[in-house]
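re: that chain from earlier
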Amino acid sequence: MTAISDLIKEYSVGPELLQEAIAGMSSAQLDAAPIADKWSTRQIICHIADFESVYADRMKRVIVEDEP
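^ sequence. v structure.
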């Protein structure tokens, strides 16, 4: 079983991993959608940022509810 502290550490390094993954990409590369009808890298990163508050709320509920 994974310790809570390990999960928190994994979660906290997420933004750094995303920054490293896109480091050096040009605006054109970030906006490219090489597969038709699929999101660009920039759209995916923005979606992750937008969803962060929803994810944080879910984590809080899991922590405090008896049967999340």
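The two ends are 19 Å apart (CA to CA).
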